[in-house]
Amino acid sequence: MTKARHSLKDVARRADVSVATVSRYLNGTLDLPEGTRGRVDKAVTDLDYHPNPHARRLSLGRSDSIALVLPDIANPFFSRLAAAIEFSAEAMGKMVSLHATMNRGDRERAAIDLASRNMVDGLVFVTNHTPTQDVIERVNRFARAVIVDEEVRGADVPRLLCDNRRGGVIAGQHLWRMGHRNVAYIGGRSDLGSTAARLDGLREGMKGIEPKCIYADAYAKASGRDLALKFLSERMGETALFAGSDELCIGILEVFRDKGVRVPQDVSIISFDDVRSLHLFAPAITAITQPVDQLGHRAIELLLSDGWNEPGFLQKTERLPVHLTERESVSDIGQ
């Protein structure tokens, strides 16, 4: 038989005081005379009353929780980012509610609406597609929201990104130093800011040389496989390939293995992200390394910052530095 759960009304009735008196006393906002205090305390003990922590926090105007909306926790980049956000939020006394959207607009809307109903203390929004206008408007309604990893045009909230353009520059410079002049780029969707920034950086790092071929699709292994097949069928002497994410890179490598294409003897490759165990591949994959843990930590710092009323805070964009982790997947062809 289920044990009855007593309510605040039961405590008030037993102590012969009003519900508001009990509520304010238990919240620590009311000091009672000793006799009244004793009756309330005894009623709480006798009834084994435990306040609903969620309702109590909402009555105080806070939930001590943060909503994290991101595309896919099966993707190692996003799962690592979520872990970093959870770790940093816990240190600040906050819980994180996680919502995976699969990049679907209906799930983004539902997750943001649920976060709003739950009166979360802030929203961290991550996507790798272009959200619809109604999703952007929902993000803008939050008193505190931070966009992380991918630019969302039209959102009036702070952004926290990695320096995608600089990552492309570093990759291009490394390929140039190793003698590569004919390169290909396989990146994310063409409507994403990260895709364009990494490609622009690659051009700069290659001293203005345009990639021989450019392919764009979702940051996913399946896309990497499809685009690798297209690259091989259309190949025009490219000696190196810059992959816009680890997931794309793995899909590319699967096709290369199946087709007998050797890395780096036949094609050199650089990845972007470095969240997969690329050092364990044969050969180990050179990559542009993103500071994913720092992204998560800084997202919580921004969300809980005291600067939200400062001029220009909502327009703030921070870009965290990336760096090259050189391994064995780029050959020196000595041009």
TrEMBL record:
Protein name stated in the entry: Transcriptional regulator, LacI family
Upper classification of the organism: Bacteria, Pseudomonadati, Pseudomonadota, Alphaproteobacteria, Rhodobacterales
Presence of keyword NAD: no
Which GO-annotated molecular functions does the record name? DNA-binding transcription factor activity; transcription cis-regulatory region binding
Which UniProt keywords are listed? Answer: DNA-binding, Transcription, Transcription regulation
Question: Which SMART domains does this one have?
Answer: HTH_LACI (SM00354)
Occurrences of domain HTH lacI-type (ranges): 7-60
What Pfam families does its record include?
LacI (PF00356), Peripla_BP_3 (PF13377)
Taxonomic source organism: Jannaschia faecimaris
**InterPro entries the record matches:** HTH_LacI (IPR000843), LacI/GalR-like_sensor (IPR046335), Lambda_DNA-bd_dom_sf (IPR010982), Peripla_BP_I (IPR028082)
PROSITE patterns under this entry? HTH_LACI_1 (PS00356), HTH_LACI_2 (PS50932)
